[in-house]
Amino acid sequence: MRTPIPTKPTACWAAVPLACGALLLLVPSLASLAAGSTMKAAVLSGGEIKVESVPVPEPGAGEVRIAIRAAGVNPADWKMARMAGRMGPAPILGLDASGIIDALGPSVTGWTRGEAVIALTRPPHGSYAQYAVVPVAFIARKPRTLTFAQAAGIPVAAITAWRSLIDVANLQSGERVLIDGGAGGVGSAAVQIAKSRGAYVIATASGRNERFLRSIGADEVIDYTQGPFEQHVKDVDVVLDTVNPDDGLRAMATLKPGGILVSIVGRMAQDRCAAARIRCAIPGSSGGQPATPYLDQVVALANAGKYRVNVERAFHLSDAAEAWRLGEQGHTRGKLVLSIPR
C-alpha cells in the first residue's frame, strides 16, 4: 500500500528538538539487520510510505529487541520524512514504541524476555514496524495503569515536556505556568507534569477540550477561540509554547519580569525577550542523552494515577500518512497512535 507524505514545509527541529536534534547521533548501521526472518514495516521509499517485508533486526551489545504493539505519532515523524536522505534507503520512521521484549543483546542485564516496556526508538530502525532494537538506555517498564496504545504516547511528548519545564524552566511548587496548546501531546504531558510539581496550571485550548484539561489537572482553561489568550492571564512565572512562534511573542505579555518562556516551536528573538524583561529558551537537542531516567519518572507518575494519555485515534500501520495529515491540523486531544499488527 502506498500513501503520500504530507507536503506542508517546516523545519524538523521545530517539532521535537529532542528527537530531531539528536537524529544523526542515533542512526545505526543498516548492516545490523539480520538475514532470514522478516517483519512488516512502514518504510519511506520514493517519497511515499509503503508497508513492506523487511529483515527482522537483531539486538547488538547493550540492546533489546521489542515486539512492538503500538507506535506513537509525532510531528517529528513527518518532518524527519523530509530529510530521509540522511538516513539511508527505505528508513523506518517512528520514535515512540510500546511492546514486549523478545530478545536480549550481548551484555544486557536487568531485563528479561517477556517484559512490557516503552521505548524511544531510533530511525532508520524506528517504531513503525513489528520489531525494533533499542539500547537499554532508551527503555522503561510500561506503566501498569496504561494500555499499550496509551503507553506508546509517552516517550517523545513526556520527555519534551519534562525537559522544558523541569530541566530548562526549573518549575517550582506554587509557581504559575501557562501551557499554550494544552490539549496536544506535549501540552497534555506538560499539564500533568506541572501539576505533579505543585504548580498552578493554566492552559490554552478550544472550548471542546476544557473538561479534558481540567480532568488532567489544569486549574484554568482559556478558550483561544473566544479572543486573545494574553488578555485573560497575567503574572505567570513560566510559559511553555507548543503552538507557534507568534503565540510565543504574544505570551511574553503574560509573564512576570524575570519569568521564562520556553518554546518547542522556534527560537524567540532575544531583543524581544530582553525588552519584555524575561528569559527565553528552547529545550534543544538531547545529544543522545539516555531517556530512561525521564521515562522512569513519568512511569512512576502514571502508576500513581497522576499521568495518563488520551488516545484520540488509533490507525493501522498502513495508514501512517493519514495520521500525519490529521496531526498536522494541530487539533489533536492527546495522542495519535499506530496499531502494529502481529
How would you describe this protein?
By secondary structure, this protein is an alpha/beta fold. It folds into two domains: 2-154 and 309-339, Alpha-Beta Complex (Quinone Oxidoreductase, Chain A, domain 1); 158-281, NAD(P)-binding Rossmann-like Domain (Rossmann fold). Helices cover 25% and strands 30% of the residues. It is built from eleven helices and 16 strands. The strands form three sheets. Strands 4, 5, 6, 7, 8, 15 and 16 form a seven-stranded mixed β-sheet that branches. The protein has a six-stranded parallel β-sheet with strand order 11-10-9-12-13-14, with helices on both faces. The protein is globular. The two termini are 18 Å apart.
